[in-house]
Amino acid sequence: MRHPLICTAIAITLVGGVAAAARAESRYFSVSGSSEGPVVAAPSTNYLLRASYLAPAKWKVAKAKRYAITRRFGPVGSCKFKITVKARAIADVNETAVARVTRLLPASRRYLREKGTRNNSAWRVIRATGSETTTGILVRPAPTVRAQPPGKRVWLELRAVGTADPTTECHSGGPRTIASEFGVILATGALGGFEPTTTPAPLGPPPPA
After folding, report:
1. What separation in angstroms does the CA of 12 have from each of 7, 8, 18, 54?
2. Rounded to whole angstroms, what are the CA distances from 49 to 28, 69, 100, 132, 208?
3. Residue 175 falls in which region: left (phi positive, over 0), alpha (psi -120 to 50) or beta
4. Phi, psi (5° rounding) for residue 103?
5. CB within 8 A of 35, min separation 6: which ones?
6. Cβ contacts of 36 within 8 Å, gap of 6 or more
7. pTM metric for this prediction
8. Which of 67, 111, 193, 209 is most deeply buried (CB count within 10 A of its CB)?
9. Exposed/middle/buried for 155, CB within 10 Å: 0-12, 13-18, 19+?
């Protein structure tokens, strides 16, 4: 038989864990969007793209259509950052996700703020040299592509860019905070979709066998 004190300790631990999870969840809200259009650098291919991520609850949200693929936030923090988060499908070099995101956002260790991988995705956050501008990108190979562009492959990207107000004095803590929040956006980001068929569905009953 379990000791009453042990049962009480377990109950307190569980309640504390649930409360901590609830507090963490309240700090963020879920954002999702979708868009169908030509793949960048491969306009003959259409792609229906879906994106979702968690954004800080304290960020002021600019008005946008429901499920818009591009969202704007700000001003954020003492630096009054204006932030844009958007997604796209693009044809590019056939390489690993880590190689791709490193090529897109090269940076020395001093300016590299966040990085990570998950399954076949990779993300990276950097601060531009000599600037407070902070950029983060999540990339993954696009699923459900019937035929890859010649010599390339279709990629999905989630990109976050934060630009500080040039008229506001900005200390180093501002870009660091934005970079950390971008890390959350990209670490929780999910990209998916498919290449829709362009063949119209037949009308009427099927032809006889």
Report:
1. 9, 6, 10, 29
2. 23, 8, 19, 30, 37
3. alpha
4. -70, -40
5. 48, 49, 68, 69, 87
6. 46, 47, 48, 49, 196
7. 0.82
8. 193
9. buried
Distance (Å, rounded) from C-alpha 77 to C-alpha 181? 12
143, HSE (Cβ side, Cα atoms, 13 Å): 7
- State how far Cα 136 lies from the chain centre: 9
Q: How far apart are the first and last CA of the chain?
A: 70
Token couple for 148: 């890859």
pLDDT by residue (tens digit) across 113-133?
A: 999 999 999 999 999 888 889
Radius of gyration of the chain (CA): 22
Q: Are 194 and 143 in contact (CB under 8 A)?
A: yes
Q: Report the amino acid identity of residue 92.
A: D
